[in-house]
Amino acid sequence: MGSAPAGAVRARYLVYFQYVGTAFNGVVAVKGAQPAIGVQNFLEEAAKGLNSVEPIKLTISSRTDAGVHALSNSAHLDVQRRPGRPPFSPEILTKALNTHLRHPAIRVVQAFRVPSNFHARYTATSRTYLYRLATGCPQLDQFSVFERNLCWALRADSLDVAAMQEAAQHLVGTHDFSAFQSAGSPARTSVRTLRRASVSPGLSSPFVSLQDRGLRFWNLEFESQSFLYRQQVRRMTAVLVAVGLGVLTPAQVKAILESRDPLGKHQTRVAPAQGLFLVAVRYPGLGNHADGTLDCGQQEGSGVWDEEALGQWKDLKDEGSG
Question: What superkingdom heads the lineage (predicted)?
């Protein structure tokens, strides 16, 4: 990038955003004239509406694969306004990005001013993923169209949840998770600390009909500071589902973990992308809520703007029309 004009002030922001991942080739931007596209492509296109002196590039905290959703992913970005113009307030930044977003399945939830050395990926202390399962679905074409892209529908009427919970505890702690990573993963180390792995009943869906009363929903949750790139959570989920179906025992899950072999019979199976949600990315000292949003005095706002915020919004609209 070229040098900025004298007097231009650069401000760094942390933004939280959510998306339904069905239509995207993952969250990270796809380069070139390919038909596939990432969530980042749309966010950076929307960021052009901020009229930054230098082009805006987002640094994504957590990469998600094609078809995976996010209730709360995050990224940092730098905005450099023209000399004499103050940095945007977080609420103006949020409104501006949402105004210019051109995809209905993406929404910027919240923005915060952060220090210039803040890094969305490396500063994060915790990430939480949720995987949704449904049991009691003999045929996929009988499953609710509203849920098909939001969970993994299993034909089995039930799962051995107690056995799944026992198996999940073998995964908790600091381990070499080589057995649950894609072959050829670029990760420098496959050692990770899984803080939590749980299996619990999920809420009943409002999108199923009376004929679907046999359906039951289940949640698998995993929390760690970081996960291995590409499919660690989905591979762990597939193994735990195999336990629930009686294909594997909890002791076998422990053996799979200790094998460190990503090419074994069971660990090569990957749960479908559509059931996975990134639900929280947390940072130190920012008063994190359970859903991964923040509360540090710079929230999106109550909808009532002060004169400064109204002035910034007017200036931004004027810049865009100039």
Answer: Eukaryota
